[in-house]
Amino acid sequence: MTTNDLHTFFEAGWNAHDVDRLMTFMADDCVFESVTGPEACGTRHVGRERVRAAFAGVFAAFPDARFGAAHHFVSGDRGLSEWVFTGTARDGRRVEVNGCDVFTFRAGKIALKSSFFKNRVAA
Q: What is the chain written as a DSSP string?
């Protein structure tokens, strides 16, 4: 996995709202740890079906979701993407937060995507 691959993952996948494209980057036994949930890691989605559903859930919750100002770093089997997430929730609430994804790669695919973002209080 390269920084160019992560750029494509965000632009052609996340920012294009293309779950099929996103899944081409994910390993067969992939894991996605989302930013919210009952566990210390958020909610842990294990396996392609659950990860696909979780990714689709982001687009359902934020139909105009966008990851901008992204910077990507890769070193061996680990990577990091920093970004600014913007979107409008179904209730009309606007969200803008800095965040990052920490990745573990295996055989050129994303095995683990663990997401983090700032908890911003509305002004």
A: --HHHHHHIIIIIITTT-HHHHHTTEEEEEEEE-SSSSBTTB-EEESHHHHHHHHHHHHHH-TT-EEEEEEEEEETTEEEEEEEEEEE-TTS-EEEEEEEEEEEEETTEEEEEEEEE--PPP-
